[in-house]
């Protein structure tokens, strides 16, 4: 019974966390309160459901409990009858009916049919800095932890925690409303939505923590949302580019891990296990995006992955084209990570010594502190240069 309840709570968390938190934010205007009450509700579910069984509508049960807790907190804080009424009217009934912040047809307002995608657009408010939009979306609506988000942004956990606190404070002090944007304003928020989906996919593709390297549920959800976004905005080349990028990576899923669950490098993967249909679909989507004549970083990254996906084998990879694409990517989205990946490509075209020079410059600049792939790349290039003792030291650092 205990395992069944825990599984039900976990499944409801995946399906309903974002909706519950968004509802409470819309009703109270307090992000921290919304998250705290949602967490309390899930804790209560573990106790209540063991005694009384899992309710027929677990998401509605949790929403009702979270709303009641928010009501109690608002009363205790004595923030005024106005706020209390906002919370009180946010439920249709005491039977666990679906909670909504306002009686508004959100689909008609935004044109976004999918609940989760609509919530992500709502969270990506243009009054916030782009990284704050993305971080808040991942934390509040997707349920990623602060350490997972910090890893995605390549910053320390404490730094990310402070960013989240500052973003919530700005929302509170500036009275930034949490409501669904009308269809005409969606384009202002698309960059944040794309960034959130990109990092959601990355966390699923190479998990920060847990028993497995891949969290397939996250990658599948990111692909689903990216497909919906691309359909919603067919003239947005970057939306199509991101979808193509995800599909190209996902096509290699069955070849990325061995039977023990360990990573298999791209060079050693059995390409017969790659999903040819998914690659074909991704290439077609990427071509459609490029034909729009508005290149961007997601399209360029997809083009890089396409070079690998369409090569007969590792030796057939067009590394010169990949170097050129990384050069192009650096003009759109300059970053030390792009420089590191470019160094790997240069090592394949001009030899490991050429790539190592770039990697050592990156290390000397301290641009990627704590990023394990920097010493791992350095170690691999040193190994290829037959400098085993130095390579071993950097492998240890990476580990």
Produce a short descriptive summary.
The chain has 399 residues and is mainly α. It contains 19 helices and no strands.
Q: What does this entry look like structurally?
A:
With 399 residues, this protein is mainly α. The chain is built from 19 helices and no strands. It has helices spanning 2-28, 31-52, 58-77, 81-88, 106-110, 115-123, 130-142, 146-153, 157-173, 190-205, 216-232, 237-250, 276-291, 297-309, 319-332, 336-350, 352-365, 373-384, 388-398. α7 (130-142) packs across α10, α15 (319-332) runs antiparallel to α16 (336-350) and α18 (373-384) runs antiparallel to α19. The longest helix is centred in the N-terminal third of the chain and has 27 residues, at 2-28. The radius of gyration is 23 Å and the shape is globular. The relative contact order is 0.06. Residues 91-103 have low confidence and may be disordered.
Q: What descriptors fit this protein?
A:
399 residues; mainly alpha; 19 helices; 68% helix; 0% strand
Number of E-state strands? 0
Distance between the termini: 40 Å
* DSSP helix fraction: 55-70%
Counting DSSP H or I runs of 4 or more residues, the number of helices is 19
Order of helix and strand elements from N to C terminus: HHHHHHHHHHHHHHHHHHH
> Given the C-alpha coordinates, what overall shape results?
globular
What proportion of the residues form beta strands (DSSP E)?
under 5%
Round the Cα radius of gyration to an integer and report it: 23 Å
Structural class: mainly alpha
Low-confidence stretches: 91-103
């Amino acid at each position: 019974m205990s395992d069944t309840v825990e599984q039900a709570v976990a499944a409801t968390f995946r399906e309903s966390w974002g909706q519950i938190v968004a509802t409470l934010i819309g009703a109270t205007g307090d992000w921290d309160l919304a998250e705290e009450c949602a967490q309390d509700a899930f804790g209560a579910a573990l106790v209540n459901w063991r005694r009384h069984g899992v309710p027929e509508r677990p998401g509605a049960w949790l929403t009702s409990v979270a709303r009641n807790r928010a009501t109690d907190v608002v009363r205790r804080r004595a923030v005024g009858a106005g706020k209390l009424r906002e919370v009180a009217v946010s439920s249709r009934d005491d039977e666990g009916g679906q909670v909504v912040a306002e009686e508004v047809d959100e689909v008609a307002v935004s044109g976004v049919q999918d609940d989760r995608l609509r919530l992500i657009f709502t969270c990506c408010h243009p009054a916030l800095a782009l990284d704050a939009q993305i971080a808040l979306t991942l934390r509040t609506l997707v349920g990623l932890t602060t350490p997972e988000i910090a890893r995605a942004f390549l910053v320390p956990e404490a730094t990310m925690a402070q960013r989240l606190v500052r973003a919530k404070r700005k929302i509170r002090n500036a009275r930034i409303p949490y409501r669904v944007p009308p269809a005409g304003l969606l384009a202002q928020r698309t960059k944040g939505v794309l960034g959130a989906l990109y990092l959601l996919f990355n966390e699923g593709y190479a998990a920060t923590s847990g028993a497995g390297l891949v969290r397939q549920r996250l990658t599948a959800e990111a692909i689903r949302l990216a497909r919906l976004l691309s359909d919603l905005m067919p003239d947005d080349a970057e939306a199509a580019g991101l979808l193509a990028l995800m599909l190209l990576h996902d096509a290699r899923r069955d070849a990325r891990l061995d039977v023990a669950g360990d990573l298999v490098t791209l060079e050693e993967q059995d390409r017969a296990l790659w999903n040819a249909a998914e690659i074909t679909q991704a290439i077609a989507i990427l071509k459609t995006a490029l034909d729009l004549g508005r290149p961007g970083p997601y399209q360029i990254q997809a083009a890089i992955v396409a070079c690998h996906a369409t090569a007969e084998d590792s030796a057939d990879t067009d590394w010169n084209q990949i170097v050129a694409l990384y050069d192009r990517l650096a003009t759109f989205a300059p970053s030390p990570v792009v420089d590191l990946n470019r160094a790997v490509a240069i090592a394949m075209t001009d030899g490991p010594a050429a790539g190592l020079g770039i990697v050592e410059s990156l290390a000397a600049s301290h641009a990627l502190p704590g990023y394990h792939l920097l010493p791992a790349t350095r170690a691999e290039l040193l190994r290829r240069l037959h400098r085993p003792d130095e390579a071993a030291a950097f492998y240890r650092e990476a580990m």
